[in-house]
């Protein structure tokens, strides 16, 4: 494999600061786009003269792994698998999945993880830009769906690291789109960003004032996109190739009929999916305590918004014509390039983003205690104190989850670790404070402090999703005082924890 | 204890103009947000992260009348109310109606508005007892409003 691992923070060559370029990358489900600011204007880059849209497809040819549409064996839409695990129903859409733990996809004699597929695409773009401009890529702003969870964000960063790209920042796709429209300079008020792409749907509400770009609320569905409509069309018309269905869909955007299929037929098939996007839009508005009348304008992003039916439905819901003068396939990359430029050279605009999903801890009975609710402004910090539940309890299990549901089993498990070496105290006397810190990219760090004895024991867990999607990590609290007895305590505590898996009680 | 008023340099008063709070919040974030320090040293970045986080924490508390009131009472050493049997009867009644599928949003919003007024008056008149009663009731009304929203949206999606 022709991949080189470069740590983030390192640039790809011995180039002096200032020589290189910073780019914006829209790493999409069906296609990817790279853009940069030239002469103060953002523009998309046609990497290899095949158009600005790079299919997010990796195939195997005689020369090895190549990126782009291909007649050979290939992997596509793997963005849908970023940060997922085997249990995820989305896996059923990928026949190339190999048996075993973790997600690996068969491509010829090779198997690739979704992170590796993404890194091939990113690497292709990086090399293309460098060849085209003769300058190194110094850093990139990469976009992710606003609704991407912790695991998917981390996976995206891993892919960039594998491709030797320094990530200046991950930003949310809808926010990038709003930047592309220059909403941060000319406009004031609340705007909706309706982003219906190949694989995901996002709706974000942004408030713009004095160059500040405040995300009020965001919501979406990671498993709702144009691909679903293609599959529905293929199934209905009994087409063997989904690409055929996609071509039909695209042609019916401009024509009323194509190959004997009427636009109405397509719209009937698309309607349930579009209805779901409208329902989500309504929920996000409610979440923000806003009504349709509060929204000053709506921006359309994502290939699906080319469909006249989608535009009609959005216009009908908001009661106003949506903004769509920038190519919906390019808006995200253009906005990302503007953001990259701003980070590199300074900017008057400021982006204040929020957590897309609630973060919490497992408590008694498999319930979730939310520590940081969704739509909390970033960077965020919140703490919760826990106490022991049995006399002399030496350990405590801490299970970090993400999601809106009340029960752990319905949320995404981010990390699980055991705190050991608690001082032997009566039930309820030991105090453990758990801190959740989320940075501007939406990445989480969890720390735990044992407070009673002033030991100030402290661990940091940054949930890391290895290439095998290992989500459970077991960590021993390191104690200066009790260090030597750790192993002994651990055995004891494990017995106790086995007997009573969860002995956390909120104080 | 984390003091949100101190972060903004505000006097500890319950009454607060949300628009000027927001304006101030934006101004301060423009100075401290970590994105302003993308190319700075690690120490500067850490400092920015800490300040920006504190601003967000303070902003969340100050812009919400319930959290703001709760903080001010805590500072004064006023214990939160733990029991209000009279009101609990009303809550149970609302709950029953919600479960029966009734949309109570209008009624609950009116109740919320009334209690917020009471809360403001209580702080003006330094009536801690009345303040903690209003705060307690508001917490329940908020929860009911949330349940109401949930019921309304599940009805709407099942249609």
Features:
heterodimer; A: 507 residues; alpha+beta; Nucleotidyltransferase, domain 5; Substrate Binding Domain Of DNAk, Chain A, domain 1; 5-stranded mixed beta sheet; 10 helices; disordered N terminus; B: 159 residues; mainly alpha; Helix Hairpins; 2 domains; 75% helix
Topology of helices and strands:
The complex is a heterodimer of chains A (507) and B (159).
Chain A: E1 21-26, E2 31-38, E3 41-44, E4 54-55, E5 57-61, E6 64-67, E7 74-76, E8 105-107, E9 110-112, H1 114-133, E10 137-144, H2 150-162, E11 167-172, H3 173-180, H4 183-186, E12 189-196, E13 201-209, E14 212-221, H5 226-236, H6 242-254, E15 257-258, E16 261-262, H7 263-287, E17 295-301, H8 308-318, H9 331-345, E18 350-352, E19 359-363, E20 367-372, E21 380-387, E22 395-402, E23 412-420, E24 431-438, E25 444-450, E26 457-461, H10 486-499, E27 505-506
Parallel strand pairs in A: 1-10, 10-11, 12-17, 14-18
Antiparallel strand pairs in A: 1-2, 2-3, 2-4, 5-6, 5-7, 8-9, 12-13, 13-14, 15-16, 19-20, 19-22, 21-24, 21-27, 22-23, 24-25, 25-26
Helix pairs in contact in A: 1-2, 3-9, 5-6, 5-7, 7-8
Chain B: H1 4-8, H2 18-32, H3 42-63, H4 65-75, H5 85-99, H6 105-124, H7 128-158
Helix pairs in contact in B: 2-3, 3-4, 4-7, 5-7, 6-7
């Amino acid at each position: 494999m022709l991949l080189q691992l470069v740590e983030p923070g390192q640039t790809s060559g011995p180039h002096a600061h200032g020589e290189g370029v910073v780019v914006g990358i829209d790493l999409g489900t069906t296609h990817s786009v790279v853009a940069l600011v030239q002469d103060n204007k953002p523009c998309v880059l046609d990497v290899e003269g095949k158009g600005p849209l790079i299919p997010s497809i990796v195939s195997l040819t005689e020369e090895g792994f190549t990126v782009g549409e291909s007649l050979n064996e290939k992997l596509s839409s793997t963005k849908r698998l970023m940060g997922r695990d085997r249990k995820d129903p989305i896996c059923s859409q990928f026949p190339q999945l190999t048996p075993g733990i973790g997600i690996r996809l068969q491509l010829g004699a090779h198997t690739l993880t979704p992170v590796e597929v993404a890194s091939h695409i990113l690497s292709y773009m990086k090399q293309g830009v460098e060849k085209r401009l003769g300058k190194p890529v110094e850093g990139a702003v990469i976009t992710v769906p606003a609704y991407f969870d912790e695991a998917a964000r981390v996976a995206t960063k891993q892919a960039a690291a594998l491709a030797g790209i320094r990530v200046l920042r991950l930003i949310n796709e809808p926010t990038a789109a709003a930047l592309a429209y220059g909403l941060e300079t000319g406009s004031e008020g609340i705007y909706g960003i309706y982003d219906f792409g190949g694989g995901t749907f996002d709706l974000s509400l942004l408030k713009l004032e004095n160059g500040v770009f405040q995300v009020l609320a965001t919501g979406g569905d990671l498993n709702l996109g144009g691909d679903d409509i293609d599959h529905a069309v293929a199934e209905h018309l009994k087409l063997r190739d989904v690409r055929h269905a996609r071509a039909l869909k695209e042609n019916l955007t401009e024509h009323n009929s194509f190959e004997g299929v009427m636009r109405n037929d397509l719209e009937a098939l698309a309607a349930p999916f579009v209805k779901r996007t409208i329902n989500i839009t309504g929920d996000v508005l409610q979440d923000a305590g806003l009504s349709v009348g509060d929204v000053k304008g709506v921006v359309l992003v994502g290939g699906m918004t080319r469909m006249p039916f989608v535009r009609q439905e959005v216009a009908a819901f908001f009661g106003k014509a949506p903004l769509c003068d920038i190519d919906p396939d390019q808006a995200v990359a253009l906005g990302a390039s503007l953001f990259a430029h701003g980070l590199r050279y300074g900017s008057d605009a400021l982006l204040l983003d929020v957590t897309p999903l609630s973060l919490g801890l497992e408590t008694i009975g498999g319930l979730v205690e939310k520590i940081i609710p969704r739509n909390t402004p970033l960077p965020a910090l919140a703490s919760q104190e826990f106490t022991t539940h049995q006399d002399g309890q030496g350990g405590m299990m801490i299970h970090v989850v993400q999601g809106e549901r009340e029960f752990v089993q319905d949320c995404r498990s981010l990390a699980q670790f055991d705190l050991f070496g608690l001082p032997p105290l009566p039930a309820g006397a030991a105090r453990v404070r758990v801190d959740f810190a989320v940075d501007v990219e939406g990445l989480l760090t969890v720390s735990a402090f044992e407070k009673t004895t002033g030991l100030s024991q402290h661990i940091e867990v940054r949930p890391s999703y290895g290439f095998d999607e290992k989500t459970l990590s077991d960590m021993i609290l390191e104690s200066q005082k009790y260090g030597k007895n750790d192993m002994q305590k651990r055995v004891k505590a494990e017995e106790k924890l086995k007997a009573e898996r969860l002995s956390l009680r909120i104080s | 204890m984390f003091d949100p008023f101190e972060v903004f340099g505000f006097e500890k008063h319950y009454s607060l103009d949300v628009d000027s709070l927001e304006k101030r919040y934006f101004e301060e974030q423009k100075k401290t947000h970590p994105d302003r320090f993308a190319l700075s040293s690690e120490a500067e970045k850490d400092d920015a992260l800490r300040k920006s986080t504190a601003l967000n924490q303070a902003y969340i508390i100050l812009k919400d009348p319930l959290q703001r009131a709760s903080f001010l009472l805590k500072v004064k050493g006023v214990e939160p109310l733990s029991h209000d049997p009279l009101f609990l009867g009303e809550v149970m009644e609302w709950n029953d109606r919600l479960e029966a599928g009734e949309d109570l949003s209008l009624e609950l919003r009116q109740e919320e508005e009334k209690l917020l007024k009471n809360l403001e008056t209580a702080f003006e008149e330094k009536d801690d007892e009345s303040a903690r009663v209003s705060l307690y009731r508001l917490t329940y009304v908020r929860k009911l409003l949330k349940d109401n929203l949930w019921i309304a949206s599940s009805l709407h999606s099942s249609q």
